[in-house]
């Protein structure tokens, strides 16, 4: 604790404890390492770092899991989980987007669709978009995973390594080439509503997915998801 001494005694403290300069009784304060900051609230918890003297040097907020929610992403399994599914005929150049809710940070290792009937010379591009207020429209591209052949029945999957933090994302598929359309597993509106319904007890397409208004997307996925309409879509999955 450095100090300065005048002719009549100590008149100033510096270092971790500050007082003065001046004569007579002086109020002492602790030296501040960071400016005052509030971290943590109903949905975030604080992460505090201290130095060797126990002084706070950084303070940040981390999003906390929703109260009462416990979701496990089993490694080696595909997500999201649905009760049942139907079929969906893919159309070249039309983007389809299916929502998925991520509750904890995880690196996913695969993305794919299940082909019911292969299409002639058919291939599908797969990817992930960020959410934009309950819709993919205007959401930023997170991953363009590339294309996979969809000419035969069975799994059509691509290996990825994509970390997703908690939030809503949109799993995207678009047939980029075909002389006869592929048919893949699709989502039945009444069986999958991860974002909730717009009316109580009334399933609607807006909770299931979106398809692009245009049918011109045969190359790389656009940087932001284009104009689209609520609709039943291809069942795209990611592997934990």
Number of helices: 0
Beta-strand portion reads 35-45%
Helix content: under 10%
Rg from Cα: 28 Å
One letter per element, helices H and strands E, the order comes to EEEEEEEEEEEEEEEEEE
Distance between the termini: 54 Å
Write down how many β-strands occur, each being a DSSP E stretch of 2 or more residues: 18
The dominant shape is: elongated
Q: In this structure, how is the largest beta sheet organized?
A: 6 strands, antiparallel
What structural category characterises the helix and strand content? mainly beta
Task: Return residue spans where pLDDT drops below 50 for at least 5 consecutive residues.
Answer: 65-71
Mean pLDDT: 81
Task: Explain what the structure shows.
This protein is mainly β and 240 residues long. The chain is built from no helices and 18 strands. The chain has strands spanning 3-6, 9-13, 17-18, 29-30, 44-50, 56-63, 78-79, 85-89, 96-102, 106-117, 123-130, 141-149, 154-164, 167-177, 183-187, 210-212, 228-230, 237-239. Strands 7, 8, 10, 13, 15 and 18 form a 6-stranded antiparallel beta sheet that branches. Strands 12-11-14-9-16-17 form a 6-stranded antiparallel beta sheet, with no helix packed on it. Strand 1 and strand 2 (9-13) form a beta hairpin. The protein is elongated. Residues 65-71 have low confidence and may be disordered.
């Amino acid at each position: 604790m450095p100090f300065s001494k005048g002719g009549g005694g100590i008149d100033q403290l510096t270092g971790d404890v500050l007082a003065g300069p001046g004569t007579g009784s002086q109020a002492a304060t602790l030296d501040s390492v960071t400016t005052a900051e509030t971290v943590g609230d109903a949905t975030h918890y604080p992460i505090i770092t201290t130095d060797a003297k126990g002084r706070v040097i950084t303070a940040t907020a981390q999003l906390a899991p929703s109260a009462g929610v416990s979701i496990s992403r089993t490694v080696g399994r595909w997500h999201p989980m649905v009760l049942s599914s139907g079929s969906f005929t893919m159309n070249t150049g039309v983007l389809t987007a299916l929502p998925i809710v991520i509750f904890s940070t995880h690196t996913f290792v695969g993305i794919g669709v299940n082909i019911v009937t292969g299409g002639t010379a058919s291939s599908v591009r797969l990817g992930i978009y960020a959410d934009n207020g309950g819709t993919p429209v205007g959401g930023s591209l997170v991953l363009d995973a590339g294309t996979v052949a969809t000419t035969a029945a069975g799994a059509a999957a691509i290996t990825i390594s994509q970390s997703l933090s908690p939030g809503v994302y949109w799993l995207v598929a678009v047939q980029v080439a075909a002389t006869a359309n592929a048919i893949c597993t699709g989502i039945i509106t009444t069986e999958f509503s991860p974002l909730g319904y717009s009316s109580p007890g009334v399933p609607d397409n807006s909770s299931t997915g979106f398809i692009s208004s245009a049918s011109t997307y045969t190359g790389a996925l656009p940087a932001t998801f284009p104009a689209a309409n609520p609709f039943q879509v291809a069942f795209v999955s990611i592997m934990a």
